[in-house]
Amino acid sequence: MKAILFHANGDKPRAVDAVRELSMHAARAGLSVLPPDSPARPDFVIAVGGDGTMLSAVHRHPGVPLLGLNLGSLGFLAGVEEPSFAAALDDLAAGRFKIAERTALKSKVVRASGGEIPLPDALNDVVVSRSAAGHAACLELRADGVKVSSFLADGLIVATPTGSTAYSLAAGGPILMPDSAAFAVTPACPHALASRPLVLPDSAVLSVSPAPKGPDAPVPPLSASADGTDPVPVEPEDKVEISKSGVRIPLVELEGYNAYEVLSRKLGWAGGFRRSVPDGRN
After folding, report:
1. pTM
2. pLDDT band at 219; cut points 50, 70, 90
3. In a domain, 277, yes or no
4. 200, part of any domain
5. Mean predicted confidence (pLDDT) in 129-133
6. Could you list the residue range(s) of the whole structural domain that residue 121 is in?
7. Does residue 122 sit in the same domain as residue 141?
8. Of 155, 159, 191, 162, nearest in space to 173 by CA
9. Considering the chain, what is the average pLDDT of its residues?
10. Could you tell me if 111 and 66 lie in one domain?
11. DSSP H or E segment with residue 17
């Protein structure tokens, strides 16, 4: 019997009600439902909410395969829509799924004064940005030690293929297929038309460092964050190193999952796409 654990935002009554109903259905389907405070390791974690809930589950339950049930507005990660919640649990109980190992990012802030501060592995992205409203930041990007460019922007987003449909997409970045061996590097609110998103091989070791905009221009306060977790301050002489992590994030893809169909359905592309899963299951 597969053991599952529900992960939801307890401050949202809709999510709490959904977990209560789904727990009863899961038991009828032959799944063992663990309580939230169980010390046992589940076979699967079911994230009920939006993509933020999914990311929270990734960091709280590392290494456990995750299935996302979407109560949010878009939900690329939490891709199963509400009418299909019960059917998704039936598929999980019956073994109609596969585990996709998604790329993650490892990153750290390297202090000019010595020492390093590691950030959590990121399923979506690592963002280096100004810490408060005000002047834009000048950020220098290097790949394998070679300067790529300097960006005058509110920040720089380095996204995995999974994260390319999150903040990076909202900032005008490209969409990468989940199995792409690449990163998307996207400036947030760039102050020059020449500042464009880049697609780089995921074998590259990237570094992002603050740079002055001019001889007497101050460097604004900056910070680095992985998947939106607690930001780490970045001082003027520091750098943020980002590379592909050795850790892979296991996500549950139900039978019939098609990444192109998900994009078509979520983004409302004209003409649609013939769905291999007509009821919107991930």
Report:
1. 0.91
2. confident
3. no
4. yes
5. 80
6. 104-246
7. yes
8. 159
9. 91
10. no
11. helix 13-29
Which tokens in the block code for residue 44? Answer: 């699967």
Confidence tier at 134 by pLDDT (50, 70, 90):
low
**What pLDDT, on a 0 to 100 scale, did the predictor assign at position 282?**
57
Catalytic residue IDs: 51
Whose tokens are 């079911």? That residue is 46
Residues 43 and 4: beta-carbon distance below 8 Å = yes
- For the stretch 110-115, contacts whose Cβ atoms lie closer than 8 Å and that sit 24 or more positions apart, written own/partner, are 110/238, 110/239, 110/240, 110/241, 111/235, 111/238, 112/235, 112/237, 112/238, 112/239, 113/235, 113/237
Contact 6, 46 (CB under 8 A): yes
Please give the structure tokens belonging to residue 128.
């280096």
Do 78 and 119 lie in one domain? The reply is: no
Q: What percent of the chain has pLDDT over 90?
A: 73
Q: What are phi and psi of 208, to 5 degrees?
A: -125, 125
More confident residue, 264 or 247: 247
262 and 238 part of one domain = no
| Tokens 């998900």 found at | 262
Reading the block at residue 191, the tokens are 């102050």
Number of residues written out for the chain: 282
Compute how many other C-beta atoms are within 10 angstroms of the C-beta atom of residue 56.
18
Residue 271 is predicted with a pLDDT of 58
